Amino acid sequence: MQPPYTVGELKQEIIKIYNAINQEIFGIGIKSQKIDIVEDKVYIFATHKRIPAMKILDKEHRSLTASVDMLLMEENKRLLREQLEQQLGLDVRLILKDYDYRTEYSGTVIILGANPLRT
After folding, report:
1. What is the C-alpha to C-alpha distance for residues 101 and 85, in angstroms, rounded to an integer?
2. Axis-axis angle for helices 7-26, 62-88 (nearest 10)
3. What pLDDT is recorded for position 1?
4. Are 21 and 80 in contact (CB under 8 A)?
5. pLDDT at residue 30 greater than cutoff 70
6. SS3 letters for the chain?
7. What residue ranges define each of the domains in the chain, with the CATH number in brackets?
8. Strand pairing partners for 97?
9. Which of 10, 58, 74, 81 could disulfide-link to 5, CB 3.0 to 4.6 Å?
């Protein structure tokens, strides 16, 4: 599948990729996710399930788990970029991601080099 896509096609493909990456990294998928696409920007808001070992360590060793969270986000972004480019033929310019360990919510913004949608 290569661009241009309908909004529905692109959302479904990105959701599959995003969830598969989380399963690969954490061994569990996403609880819920919402995706919006506006021209060359993709917005993903997701609820994750925190790894139980990380939850336990958060209480007394937050500086350690914060470092691990950052490294996992970087790996997540690397894999997401790689798979969006390879599987969907998208020109990914930038991926911004943040995660709140307390609420288990994450926000991801993907900026593409061009609008991949059919007009």
Report:
1. 28
2. 140
3. 67
4. yes
5. yes
6. CCCCECHHHHHHHHHHHHHHHHHHHHCCCCCEEEEEEECCEEEEEEECCCCHHHHHHHHHCHHHHHHHHHHHHHHHHHHHHHHHHHHHCCCEEEEEEEEECCCCEEEEEEEECCCCECC
7. 7-112 (3.30.980)
8. 108
9. 10
Minimal CA–CA distance to 70: which of 93, 102, 99?
A: 99
User: Is residue 85 over pLDDT 90?
Assistant: yes
Predicted confidence (pLDDT) at residue 119 exceeds the cutoff of 80: no
* Token output for 78: 């690397």
| Average per-residue pLDDT for the chain | 94
Better pLDDT: 57 or 3: 57
Residues above pLDDT 90, as percent of the chain: 88
The amino acid that residue 109 corresponds to is V
